Amino acid sequence: LGAAAINEFGIAPLSISAQGSFADNRVTLSSARATGSQGLSATAQGVIPLAGGGLDIAINGSIPLSLANRFVADSGAQVIGTANLDARVAGRVDDPRFSGSVSIAGAEYIDPALALRLQNINASASLSADRVTINSATAQLATGGSVSASGTIGLDANLTSNVQIALDNAR
Question: What is the DSSP string of 114-165?
């Protein structure tokens, strides 16, 4: 699959396969897989009702952080690495509830305009219906020292958040 909507994200071509069944007004997805360039990979399985409750989908995947480059490229910045996702969507199709975790290990962020290079970025976050909780996030500064963060980022309309950032011998 290649389309303008995904070409701009750099994941085309995208290959999608799925197996499942339809009965009693619900789709039972026995397996679905999507793969794209740059190492994008995701699998899913579960139940999708066409109406009412009973939504239950498990999603696992690897997402290249380079997908974020289009948002930071104006300053010449780039992101290198992979995020791993282990998530679940439950509830109703018209009111889904998300949960799960995201982790990043050994990533890098380079921003020449800011003379900033973060190395060995490691992060762990939990996903819930209304927030992302940063359990831990650490990185080494190429110029010496480190930075760490923890806290919550709300998924409400106001993005109500509380994030603590600490610098240790940062130069």
Answer: GTEEEEEEEEEEEE-SSEEEEEEEEEEETTS-EEEEEEEEE-STT--EEEEE
Q: Where are the beta strands (DSSP E) in 65-94?
A: 78-80, 82-92
Q: Alpha-carbon dihedral of residues 123, 149, 119, 10, nearest 10 degrees?
A: 60
H or E stretch covering 60? strand 53-64
Contact between residue 84 and residue 64 where contact means Cβ atoms under 8 Å apart: no
* DSSP-derived 3-state class of residue 55: strand
- State pLDDT tens for residues 2-54: 556 666 666 678 899 999 999 999 999 999 999 988 889 999 999 999 988 99
Q: How far apart are CA 158 and CA 144, in angstroms?
A: 35
Bridge partner residues of 129 (DSSP): none
